[in-house]
């Protein structure tokens, strides 16, 4: 057990410190960073899914006044490391997916660059390709491991035998579609190369991650790369690691005699260049005794990946630890396709991995004649079923009980399709949420005393809209035992010490824990009355004891759904999320994070799907008119609350992270509510009106 | 993006002359769709003739009860016009069901009629499309067809017209006033848009250079309504929409008889689809849910659903019945909310048909 930091600023609902800058439009995002005499880059994207570029004719494009050059596989500078084929832009003539960069125009204005890009003629030698995810694809393979080091398969006991003899069985296939992250701020990079130093103003979830990757790919020393990102308009994982556009901008900056290059990725181009979430096919079998206690659970997952770069989403992860059962099995197989590269999207693994299983639990509850909450209560594991480790803090049932009371769960009519109001079928549903606690190593914070009581606290962290500017300032203030207006925080710049990516809901715990360690070291070095200029750096504290526990946040989602008996239109008038996330640093920004996750879960449930046309290998609905996310009219009464709970095993903050758990399980709660309303069990997201037509 | 000339029209006649004299010129009004298409590389006009400042922006109620709507009346203003709201609710409802508040503030009456399909292949110049590039083939017919036609399509094009307003206008029997080099002509709105046939590049019967100057509404029908079914609560194109204008023999009858009815469907065809078969069934018939559904079935007999959009048949049937029930005060039948004991249960799924349409 670590010593928890006493809370003073921590736990206070401060408004965002960067709020005024943002609402007045003066917070500089990557594209708006003022640079001298920039050039503008517009890419030419491949129109075949697989094959080679035989010839790029740039004459017409280069004849347009204002065009500096057109980079092609023949003329682009060479990279030092092309092993990551997603990033090896213009390094050879192969095409691995449709929408891949095959040339890039540099021009004096964005309009000229775009005009000239239309005039670049590319001749291809096309090859047969595959862009259709099928559960029976003979090319399915088992990856070595899944994302975040998760084992590919798992097995305990004898699932087959237990399933055969189970009193109650559920055997169904569920699916989630491909989705795109679609942050409000499209990806953008401004790159400047002065011959020794590469400066990148990038929209990223981790400046140090970009620095490390770009130095490696370009063959530069890390000191030769500086990355700046003070404000980021969302990422949801798609800005967690640099995608090809960052390398493209950096490469182009080598061809401009020092002039900066601006490369804003268009919304349409994001659908092929900046990653997406894999679709999943989830075959689930549950076996249970008459009383609902699980005796067998298996989950067999099929996902896709790009043939040029593997990404294996850890979809079975939550199924392995969520409920008690002596016999359990999971497998994950990938279909390698000639498509854009999938990657992280909010709660990779947990998000899709809690859709099928949580709907299956609802089906089992119905089969057992049990309330869905009672079914989960009967299957609460005493220890982590996967590892046998004790829980640091498992308050799942408290979340359900509090939520049931607040939501009015007792008014739910068990029998589906029993409630109708004004032509709308009404129902309620619930589902569990879970997210693992992650704390990243490789963090360092620097604290220095300026003067007049002001402390400078620097760490190369990122605020992607989460509230990190505010929360880290609160943590630093308490760690230094000063008011928050004495803290001058510096984040979003590689001139500040190394920090991990804003991902895995790990930022606040990882960066905050490091700031606390640095504050303690600073006080040890310099006392309560330091001299101006006094400075101390410290690394993230080790926490070997955490290895002895299973550390997870839990939650319970409740949803009310109304479905038009005439048209099948589905609305969600009420959603409630109850979470057990450990300590909350800032209730205001935390609530915003939970509601944001739940809103994204609402979108996952009702709207979001990237339609991959297998004949072309493109996502055809590649803009926000055709790729639907919730509008304001879709988001009605939504609330998030949490159980006050400080996790003594989750580092000195006692906080487990809140960025992702809001989306986990929310789509299942809505699907379960839709079943309760309509009697129609939809197992394939999204829940569009056509699926409820009578 | 390609450089283009920009001219500001002095008056309607000179605007017509400018566009008529230049084969690659186009009129610009609100720009909410044309400018998008230019950004996407779908439209490449060499000259834009801006008519947005012409004073064709009034709604005039005439002595005979007709209403003349200037082409530059903004969608938001038309929807909010008191006379339209009270006398032509279908039109106001349709306008408010379209696009977003910001777009409706810019989009004009004429422009709304002339917006083009949002078929994802039409809007993506890297895929074949007969409407964008005649002769290249239709990518949609065997592709992603959730928003595509079930009525009146051809093998060359299965796109739908995206307008909500135009569907209401079709049910209201409106007419489009057009100024061309040879003078003015008036086109019934149902004849204004075309079916694709072998020339899907032509959305309307307008000749190059003809300018929509107004839309005319006949005197208001006693009852009218518009209902749009879409994938989210706002800012989405119709899966299906229904506009209906209706007159009863005797408003107070227990089971009223329909004297006259006009129905138009949106989201199902290359144009606002006048449901003439359904109208024929209903004219003179009693207003009952069974008759409404029979009328829908009569219309849908000619439907040819595509891979992803078979659901539009029951959706049209249900929505048409619902709109007519609302207009006539017929109560809804029991929607089956009598409870069901786990129709799928542990024995497997009930066949709902949609599994096959998941791409």
TrEMBL record, chain A:
Keywords per UniProt: Molybdenum, Oxidoreductase
Keyword Iron-sulfur attributed: no
Gene3D superfamilies listed in its UniProt record: Aldehyde oxidase/xanthine dehydrogenase, a/b hammerhead, Aldehyde oxidase/xanthine dehydrogenase, molybdopterin binding domain
Pfam families, per the entry: Ald_Xan_dh_C, MoCoBD_1, MoCoBD_2
GO molecular function, one term: oxidoreductase activity
Domain Aldehyde oxidase/xanthine dehydrogenase a/b hammerhead intervals: 24-128
Superkingdom to which the source organism belongs: Bacteria
This protein's record includes keyword Cytoplasm: no
SUPFAM superfamilies membership: CO dehydrogenase molybdoprotein N-domain-like (SSF54665), Molybdenum cofactor-binding domain (SSF56003)
Protein known as: Molybdopterin-dependent oxidoreductase
Organism: Arthrobacter yangruifuii
TrEMBL record, chain B:
Keyword set, alphabetical order: Oxidoreductase
Source species: Arthrobacter yangruifuii
Stretches the record annotates as Disordered: 331-359
Keyword Oxidoreductase among UniProt keywords: yes
Sequence ranges assigned to domain FAD-binding PCMH-type in this UniProt record: 1-222
Name of the protein in question: Xanthine dehydrogenase family protein subunit M
Molecular functions (GO terms): FAD binding; oxidoreductase activity
Pfam families: CO_deh_flav_C (PF03450), FAD_binding_5 (PF00941)
Top-level taxonomy: Bacteria, Bacillati, Actinomycetota, Actinomycetes, Micrococcales
InterPro entries with a match to the protein in the record: CO_DH_flav_C, CO_DH_flav_C_dom_sf, Diverse_Substr_Oxidored, FAD-bd_PCMH, FAD-bd_PCMH-like_sf, FAD-bd_PCMH_sub1, FAD-bd_PCMH_sub2, Mopterin_DH_FAD-bd
